[in-house]
Amino acid sequence: TVLFNYPFSIGDLRDSATVLFNYLEQQQPAKVPWDDLRYIFGEIMYGGHIVDARDRLLCNSYLEFFMQDELLDESEMFPFCEGKGVSFRSPLPAGYEKYVEHLESIPGETPLAYGLHPNAEIGFRTQQCQDLFGMLMQLQPRGGTGGE
């Protein structure tokens, strides 16, 4: 299996936000054109970086799930992730303080939020430790004489 690292950056996110703003401002649609926006982001903005067909399918699946009218429904919280003891929902429309309160109430990241087994974090943390200690070992002085 070949793993691809894609060069997504904060610039991609900023540019996508600008495109979204300009598109909605110029078109002034009565209804959000989700199909157009999914194409712009999934095939052009981010999709232009994606070279693997399965990665493109995954990206488009995420866009299909998240980019829908229910995301903007002000009467209920949109479920970004639910199940197995985890629930990440969007906040209802409110003032700044309520948004901050909502964000602070969200539990820390968990593999369950990404549909992974809880043990997935163990492997990740183990690799982090190995990388850290490997780097520390490389920084150790090698032989030679100390000072006088």
Automatic annotation (TrEMBL):
Gene3D superfamilies: Region D6 of dynein motor (1.10.8.720). GO terms for biological process: microtubule-based movement. Pfam families: AAA_lid_11 (PF18198). It comes from Vitrella brassicaformis. GO terms for molecular function: dynein intermediate chain binding; dynein light intermediate chain binding. This is Dynein heavy chain AAA lid domain-containing protein. Transmembrane segments: none annotated. GO terms for cellular component: axonemal dynein complex. Residues 5-120 form the Dynein heavy chain AAA lid domain. It comes from the Eukaryota.
